[in-house]
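Hi there. Long-time user, first ticket. I'm pasting a complex I've been working with (about 541 residues overall). I'd like to know whether the download I got is complete or cut off, because the file seemed smaller than I expected. Thanks.
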Amino acid sequence: MTSRELVVDTLEFRSPERIPRQLWVLPWADRTWPAELAAIRKKYPDDIVQSPGFLTEPLKTQGDEYAPGLYVDEWGCRFENRQAGIIGEVKEPRIAAWSDLDGLRLPKERLSVDVRKVDDFCAASGAFVHARTIVRPFELLQFLRGPENLYVDLAERPDGLFRLIEKVHRFYLEELELWASTEVDALFFADDWGSQNSLLISPVLWREVFKPLYRDYAEIAHRHGKYIFMHSDGHIAAIFPDIVEIGVDAINSQLFCMDVEELGRRFAGKITFWGEVDRQHLLPYGSPADVARAVRAAKEALFRNGGVIAQCEFGIGARPENVAAVFETWNRLS
Amino acid sequence: MLKEMQEALIAGKKSDVEALVGQALAAGLPAARILNEGLIPGMERLGVLFKNNEVFIPEVLVAARAMNAGLGLLEPHLAKAGVKPRGIVVIGTVKGDLHDIGKNLVAMMLRGNGYKIVDLGVDVAPEKYLEAAKANGAGAIAISALLTTTMVQMKNVVDAVEAAGLGIPVVIGGAPVTRDYADKIRARGFAPDAASAVEEIGRLIAA
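Hi, the file is complete. Here it is re-exported in full:
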């Protein structure tokens, strides 16, 4: 059985032979634990991979996203960073005034995908392949406007906000249609919606402004016979029913911010839980035994003849022995 | 009128708050009464709503802006009457960390609850907290971190405050921070969210 078949059986709740896995790695881990990371990757290869971008035109960026200093992304957002291995923060919004919106350049280079190369990559890979693009409207709006400005916009609802959302959303639709025309298995969108114990904005506002965007992304994926995956950090229990309702196939969320058992009672068998294991406390400060206990609890709560992907992030502060314990435990439980 | 002011503040209606503060002053109400019975109770109610997930960051930010507008009108009158703030709090994000929306929320809510805030910004070295606390006669230091790697800087601030014999509480918060961690590094205060930070700082300053 190929990795792709394993993942599809998981998403379809068809009792996969083994729980499929994927390790997310921040450059910090590459730099801090190169040998340990290589050993984990060798022992537990990913069943889900991301296609290379295969862009024929390079993105117009400046600097290194993960290096200290200034990085300018393809939308013109300027990130300041103090730490190697993680991304920085936007301190000067690209759209400080709504008059700046007309001058916003869309990063059309992202649409210069060599589809044939993507298809060749998918054909040669036994893994389940994600599109390269990561669609993230809420985060992009924060980068473009600055987080505080955006939150105030969401309360005051100026016309400019909706013109900006429309502009960003249209671009993302075009990009997703393009990737959906390739042989990738799934599209992916990501936005961090939760704080430690609640949503960042009201669920009512989320449903009104953002849910329709995500519904469009899911519709594109499904119309093309693809799966749709979503990521959100934070406590997002309030919008879990909406995420299921718009047809998201797999959700990567901070399960351990929320009540895992309650999530399982309400949503197991309706959506696939694409990880994770607590990267704020367990992976940096716990022991392998703590990690194993958490994984067992997640399996008990969430697995229903599938519906679980073993995933965690080897990010800043995480201990390699704990990351290894995540996959050792899932393998034992498979 | 003061009740109406509270409602306008909670709704984030800046121009209404300004107008009502102006009317209250014109009607001869003392600035301290407008603050203590109009604006501060409004912010306190907002804090409860925020803690209970009945309002969220957008609503808090626009309410804080309305609060600041009202305070701006009151401040000359408060100074003239010799009204002191509830306390002085030095606040900042730890060294190496540029994330500030959580810290800014706490600062806004503290200001709205009658505290004077000395905001040192982001990426703040331990000695800067000390200098600012001494120079301003602060009653507490509030520090924030988003990252597990920068969180460890909090201990350096607590150690520096202890070594200097300053005797004021350090209150910590931020995504990865827990009460256990606060206990471990001997921080006297911990807050899981901005509204709790106001309560925790109030409790510690009053103690």
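A couple of notes from our side: The domain at 3-56+93-333 of chain A is CATH 3.20.20.210 (TIM Barrel). Chain A is about 45% helix and 15% strand.
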